[in-house]
Amino acid sequence: MLKRKLALGVICGFTLSGLVACGGGGGSSEPASQGNSTTPAPAPIPTPEPSATNTVKFSAGTYVRENQGTISEAVVVDDTMYYVSFETDGTMWSRVDKVKDYVVADKIVDAPAVYQLADQTMVNSGQFDATLTINSDKVISSMTGLALSMGNSFFLNGNRFNPVENITDLSKLNGQWISSDFRSVQIDGNTTFSAVDANNCQISGILSAKSNGVFAATLTYSSCDKAGSYEGVLWSYNFNDVTYLKWFGLDNGNKAVSASLDTVASEQEQLALSGKLNTAFYANTTGKILFTKSNKVYYSGGNNGGKYFFEYQTPADVTTLNAAGQGITWPVKTAVKASLKLMVPKLTGQAVEGEITYDTDLSESFFNLQPVPKQSLLSSVTGNWGELSIADNGSLSGKLLDCTVVSGTVSGYENSIADIALELTSCDGAGSYSGVVTAQDLEKDRLMLFVHLNNNTDVSVGIISGGLDRTN
Length: 472
Known about the structure:
- The chain is elongated.
- 2% of the residues lie in helices and 52% in strands.
- By secondary structure, it is mainly beta.
- The termini are close together.
- The protein is built from one helix and 36 strands.
- The longest helix has 8 residues, at 267-274.
- Strand 34 (431-440) and strand 35 (446-453) form a beta hairpin.
- It folds into three domains: 12-22 and 287-469, no CATH class; 57-164; 170-262, no CATH class.
- Residues 1-21 form the signal peptide.
């Protein structure tokens, strides 16, 4: 079969006795001399003057960079560039006018900018710089090293910003946006815009389509503390199977308004709407994995953590989820009751973190578990995985670890994650297990499994998690 690559790799291996091992495989400066010197100081190197007649062109209206669930964008409207990053504590933004006038060779050099950090209210002035990839036709195909000088300090985003194709027929997306921050969003004929946010702020706007796929936007806010008129940009695109709609605007005093909506409920939004988290699979490069399905959370700490299973009730506060459960500790393999405190992600695609506390008052924590993209999960786990076979109808046979599978079924697929139940015998870990299973599209397809022993006692004595490679 074809082997397909995925940037995120999780390497896990099973061990016996109901437990599992799951693991991942400058410069310097010196103070200047205070003494006299006979060596003349070198002449300063002049900064190249930008050209007011620069003929470079942007290949797209929107350039996107994603890092650990946070998406940042450079959006171009006419000759103005907006840098916008929607973060958990607010929106970080900057605006650069006549940006092409400051392109020197393959860089944006010392472009005057106004900016605001996500956790601040003050708008400041600074300078914007970036390194550009420009082809032979003088088209800017990507950007990297975006830097915003802030007096004696600077903000640097070193990752590459790549172009995306903007969606221009916005009215066809009416009714698809999911957001707990807005009651309604409507775009008619791609020229008029209206919205009402959760605080009943009334928003209206006039949109003007640009040839690069974005829309210049004149926005009016009323019946709220943001009341006023704003000039800016509205844009939409698809990224990692999620469609986004965003806007940003500034008034005459550089007071900003912004919003980010998408077609997939974030964990906080889903929890508020349904009382349950999204069905999802999270992992990091150290072998830690976490599943959420129905009202259950499954966690394996790999080679450096325990294995736990939790159930939860709908929380009053969707920012934090508390759940009760049980598991097996690490490095001392002790069966314990445990509780989970999960920080629920606010943004779509954001990493999860949390803390697990045992009934012995000890604890372990996890962070930066990234959601595994849906497109990297196989639609079915059918096949042979080591000595374990899963038939087209979901029935199980063969062996798992050194245990014989007496019976078992896979069913209830949701977002490529299924429920699994099986009976194991002829081994130390014999018993009835249930849990979740999915298959990842890595260089070689890999089955990811988490099951816990259903023994009707207060504390589980068997948890199995990890990965098996496809053998057919």
